[in-house]
Design goal:
By secondary structure, the chain is mostly helical. It contains 18 helices and seven strands. About 45% of the residues lie in helices and about 5% in strands. It catalyses: Endohydrolysis of (1->4)-beta-D-glucosidic linkages in cellulose, lichenin and cereal beta-D-glucans.
Length: about 500
């Protein structure tokens, strides 16, 4: 669970050292990106809620939360637990689905056998989002109560905390979560367009309706649901970014001129040009600019030319050593945005760097940062450096992906992973009985393969303590953009 009470933009402090790419990395792969890719997708199976399928690979998990939604006479079984607890939060779940879909849209062609697993990970989320949006002008945005959930440390399979259902509607709008849900459904429709056209059509039709609701009834979902969603997934950045992002995805999925017109008319009031350089579950502005710049760079939509300049501004703020750099890096070279779950920004930024490099390459263009020219190759080098740090090229020689490499976090902040599995211990473990596992120094009995934790601090330190959720908790939205980045790297080093 990400508890940000204050969003301090650490990114405003400039980097202390310049970025020097290692020349020998040009020809040699420093890591088995293919193995990391496979694991990064397998992780999602460990986060599944609901009735597990026969081909479930993360076998220490069992069925859980099989009556979700019944209190409201609606079927909300399925979907994902966002992180190390047992709540289903619709806002980060939708963002996870959008980013998994974008990973497949840009790099699925390079994934070979893994693309089917990635599609299954997406579908586990979108099947749930279709259930959550089945009634017009209503979206079920959360199942479970975080506060009562946090009073217990228990396996999802044993869960006996209240499974309250929370929704948004015309009277209590939530343009942020609604537009993100529309983005997820629209992006996923592109993933399934060729392999399952009927499902794709269902997704895009629903996306259209959900976006209309998001736009017509405007408001932040954390206004009406403040005690429920704050400080966990409070909408700090407002809902304007999601409306722009949702419209960008619907334009991409449908090709309809109405969405392009919407972007042109509403872009300025939705903060299209405001500077920010954090991309994650809360703020989608940077992602929307990148996606819209593709319309100009790749599809040659002239009216989107300004988004190239806006995307360039983001790039210049990330690249160390340029006069516009507004990003902090650890001494070991890791992009550092926030002390709470920083790795989510590392993975999302790495994905954007590789994706933008792809767009620039296809348009034979580069980025100008003041006097310096930044080429697609520079973007790829920086992204690779970030992913390599995550996989073990860091001062601690620690892989921050569980189950990858010889040295990885053994005590992650994750209930199911830290308690014995129901195969090993079929008897129920009561709510508070599990806390002995939280405070134990023993390694987690169940390896949540592929989970990427919050990561090291600003000084490259990592305690590997279960109680330290800021550094030791994994999250679905940390892994989702990494899937695309790893697919690119595995392919570029001939591993796929």
């Amino acid at each position: 669970m990400t508890f940000f009470v204050l969003l301090f933009l650490v990114s405003l402090f400039s980097a202390s050292h310049a970025f020097t790419p290692h020349s020998h990395h040009r020809h040699l792969a420093s890591h088995n990106y293919r193995d990391a890719l496979s694991k990064s997708i397998l992780f999602f199976e460990g986060q599944r809620s609901g009735k597990l399928p026969p081909n479930q690979g993360m076998t220490w998990r069992g069925d859980s939360a099989l009556s979700d939604g019944s209190a409201m006479h609606v079927d909300l079984v399925g979907g994902y637990y966002d992180a190390g607890d047992n709540v289903k939060f619709g806002f980060p779940m939708a963002f996870t689905a959008t980013m998994l879909s974008w990973s497949v849209i840009e790099f699925g062609g390079l994934m070979k056998g893994e693309v089917q697993n990635a599609r299954e990970a997406i579908r586990w989320a979108t099947d749930y989002l279709l259930k959550a949006t089945q009634h017009p002008d209503v979206i079920y945005v959360q199942v479970g109560d975080a506060r009562s959930d946090h009073v217990c440390w228990e396996r999802p399979e044993d869960m006996d905390t209240p499974r309250n259902v929370y929704k948004i509607d015309k009277n209590n709008p939530g343009s942020d979560v609604a537009a993100e849900t529309a983005a997820a459904l629209a992006a996923a429709s592109l993933v399934f367009k060729k392999c399952d056209p009927a499902y794709s059509k269902t997704l895009v039709t629903r996306a259209t309706r959900v976006f209309e609701f998001a736009d017509k009834y405007r408001g932040a979902y954390s206004d009406g649901l403040r005690p429920i969603v704050c400080p966990f997934y409070c909408s700090y950045s407002g809902y304007q970014d999601e409306l722009l992002w949702g419209a960008a995805w619907l334009h991409k999925a449908t090709g309809k001129p109405m969405y392009l017109k919407y972007i042109q008319v509403n872009g300025p009031t939705l903060g299209a040009a405001e500077f920010d350089n954090m991309f994650g579950w809360d703020n989608k502005h940077v992602g929307a600019r990148m996606l819209l710049s593709k319309g100009f760079l790749v599809q040659k939509v002239q009216s989107l030319h300004e988004y190239k300049a806006l995307a360039d501004n983001f790039i210049c703020s990330i690249i160390p050593g340029t006069s516009f750099s507004a990003s902090q890096y650890t001494p070991g070279g890791l992009l550092f945005k926030m002390s709470d779950s920083n790795m989510q920004y590392v993975t999302s930024t790495s994905f954007l760097l590789l994706t933008y490099a792809k767009y620039l390459t296809s348009a034979h263009m580069s980025v100008s940062c003041g006097g310096a020219t930044v080429t697609p190759k520079t973007l790829r080098t920086l992204a690779k450096k970030q992913v390599d740090y995550l996989l073990g090229d860091n001062p601690l020689k620690m892989s921050y992906m569980v189950g990858y490499g010889p040295n990885y976090p053994r005590r992650i902040h994750h209930r199911g992973s830290s308690l014995p599995s129901i195969e090993v211990h079929p008897a129920k473990i009561q709510c508070s009985a599990g806390f002995s596992a939280l405070s134990s120094q023993s390694p987690n009995p169940n390896v949540l393969v592929g989970a990427v934790v919050g990561g090291p601090d600003l000084h490259d330190r990592f305690p590997d303590e279960r109680s330290d959720y800021a550094q030791s908790e994994p999250a679905t939205y940390t892994n989702a953009p990494l899937v695309g980045a790893l697919a690119y790297l595995a392919h570029s080093f001939g591993q796929l």
